[in-house]
Amino acid sequence: MDLDVVLVAQRGRLAFEAALLAVTLRHASPRWSGRLLLAEPQPGPLWPEDPRVDDAELRALLDDHGAEWVPFESRHFGAAYPHGNKIEALHALGDRPFLFLDSDTVVTGELADVAIDPARPSASMKRENTWPTEEIYGPTVHDVWAALYAARGLDLETSLDRAWPHGHWRRYLYFNAGWFFGASAARFGEAFEAAALLIREGAGEGGIPELACQPLDPWLDQAALPLAVHELGGGRPGAGGGIADGILDGTHTFHWRHVPLMYATAPDHVIACVEEAARTNPVKKVLKRYDPFRKFIYQPKGWRARALFDRGDLPRKEQQVRNRLKREKLWTQR
User: Fold this and answer.
1) Share above pLDDT 70 across residues of the chain, in percent, rounded to a whole number
2) Using the 8-state DSSP alphabet, how is residue 100 labeled?
3) In the structure, how many helices (H) and strands (E) does the chain have?
4) Which one of 53, 168, 253, 288 counts the least CB within 10 Å of its CB?
5) Are the C-beta atoms of 5 and 102 separated by less than 8 Å?
6) Can you tell me the distance from the alpha carbon of 112 to that of 215, in angstroms, rounded to the nearest whole number?
7) Do 293 and 16 contact (CB within 8 A), yes or no?
8) How far from the centroid of its chain's Cα atoms is residue 144's Cα?
9) Given a cut of 80, is residue 60 above it in pLDDT?
10) What's the rounded mean pLDDT across residues 46-69?
11) What is the pLDDT of residues 88-115, one digit of tens each?
12) Where are the alpha helices (DSSP H) in 40-130?
């Protein structure tokens, strides 16, 4: 795999997360030969404050790990919907194959060994039944997806996983937007943006009736992503998408989202990789300034959280993990 790895780097938390991703990438994947691109939103009317990374030490650490900075303009989302960064950033990346990773991801295996066919886009299946919601009097899950596919001129039937019954949420193409890839960043960005704007505008008065009661914050990117993937000829990992299942969000990457969740739930190889990559003095000097990293990677809270759970028998619902961590005072805000 030599396609570009792309993530959003922004002032504050995301910059520290990007730094951890970069150091684990270089530690776990020394033979990978692609580019590490940091998409950085630029000041503009949609950002009340300058979103650029203004921390010189953080920028230097990222530079030292081979990152290239790519500025992009926010035309539709900005501070009102920061998840939209991943949609708008793609326009600045050109007509090259790419793998987008959320900044709260670590690389844990050699990416040079990963077989990806970017002509068949795919995305993360590490998701729960979060969208669409189904009211007692409708519309049903099927109704919502059917309306969106029809509005985009797409064939819903060819996207279905028929191993699941009609109306079951897993029957429909639905992803977590923590990773996705395609053959052209610019083309993917066009499809992703068109789907997101269709959904956002369709939820308003006079729009798509099936969207009238659907929550879009923070789910807009995850609602739009399946439409973009399907439009561009992709599908689920291992079943239409150009990557085997269990590689990303499995053997080679981990989307941690909250540091306490990573220590509570991640396989042993993930924690070993993170702690090995983060232990050198130049890295430690920077990362420990971010409070969750300091308390969980460099102080005992991480292993205290880890001792609470059996990774082979985790609670079925993530909320149960969160609740126990909070009861034990092992939770930290991002």
Assistant:
1) 100
2) E
3) 12, 10
4) 168
5) no
6) 39
7) yes
8) 23
9) yes
10) 97
11) 999 999 999 999 999 999 999 999 999 9
12) 56-64, 85-88
* Separation between Cα atoms, residue 104 and residue 122, nearest integer Å: 19
Give the E-state strand segments of 282-322 in sequence order: none
Residue 114: what pLDDT? Answer: 96
**Do residues 15 and 65 touch, judged by C-beta distance below 8 A?**
no
CA angle 227, 120, 103 (to 5 degrees): 70
Q: Is the preceding omega at residue 218 within 30 degrees of 0, hence cis?
A: yes
- Upper half-sphere CA count for residue 145 (Cβ side, 13 Å): 27
The single-letter code of the amino acid at 119 is A
Distances (CA, A) of 259 to 5, 104, 233, 282, 283: 22, 9, 35, 21, 17
pTM for the whole structure: 0.95
Sign of CA dihedral 49, 51, 56, 57: positive
Q: What is the pLDDT of residues 112-155, one digit of tens each?
A: 999 999 999 999 999 999 999 998 888 999 999 999 999 999 99
Please compute, for residue 180, the number of CA atoms within 13 A of its CA located in the half-sphere on the CB side.
30
CA distance 99 to 213: 33
CA 331 to chain CA mean position, Å: 21
Work out the average pLDDT over 168-175.
98
How far apart are the C-alpha atoms of 177 and 85, rounded to whole Å? Answer: 12
Query: Closest Cα partner for 28 from 251, 182, 311?
Result: 251
Task: Write the single-letter amino acid at 29.
Answer: S
